[in-house]
Amino acid sequence: MVYQFKFEKILSIKENEKDKALGEYNEAVKRFEEVGRKLYQFLKQKEDYEEIHKQKLQSGLSIQEIRYFQQFITNLERTISHYQQLVAQARQQMQLKQMKLAELNIEVKKYEKMQEKYFQTFLQTLQAEENKLMDEISIQQFVSRGN
């Protein structure tokens, strides 16, 4: 008697789906990290530039340089705002992929548990058949000795 799990193909499909979802989740995490890193760089650039501007203001600046600074900061703030939205979107995508991965992981675990239970039942059936065969052999030996 050979053991064959009747849901083997379904389990295989679910494992493939889980692996695909894991890849998508890892990509979402990578995207989130990239966008977050760029946002950090722009925030750091703004902070550094404001510090330099503050130092230059103490030593004196022309009106043209002040206007240039204001325009640059305005553009930088727009960029920062845009990247904040991208970070929020990337975080949301990452969380959705994580939830999908968790659901698929639960499904795979269910099928694995089912497979384990079916295998235990198979082993019990096999043991019962073996015991029955041993009983028959014992009875035949007893009968043949008795004659």
Summary tags:
mainly alpha, Helix Hairpins, 147 residues
Shape: rod-shaped
Structural class based on helices, strands and sheet pairing: mainly alpha
Order of helices and strands: HH
How many whole angstroms does the radius of gyration measure?
A: 34 Å
Estimate what percentage of residues fall within beta strands: under 5%
Residue runs with pLDDT of under 50 for 5 or more positions: none
Q: Biggest β-sheet, characterized?
A: none
Instruction: Predict the CATH topology.
Output: Helix Hairpins
- How many strands? 0
Quote the distance from N terminus to C terminus.
34 Å
CATH level-1 class? Mainly Alpha
Would you mind describing this structure in some detail?
The chain is rod-shaped. The two termini are 34 Å apart. It has 2 helices and no strands. It has 147 residues and is an all-alpha fold. It has one domain: Orthogonal Bundle (Helix Hairpins), CATH 1.10.287.
What is the topological layout?
Layout: H1 8-59, H2 63-146
Helix pairs in contact: 1-2
Give a short synopsis of this structure.
The protein is built from two helices and no strands. The chain has 147 residues and is mainly α.
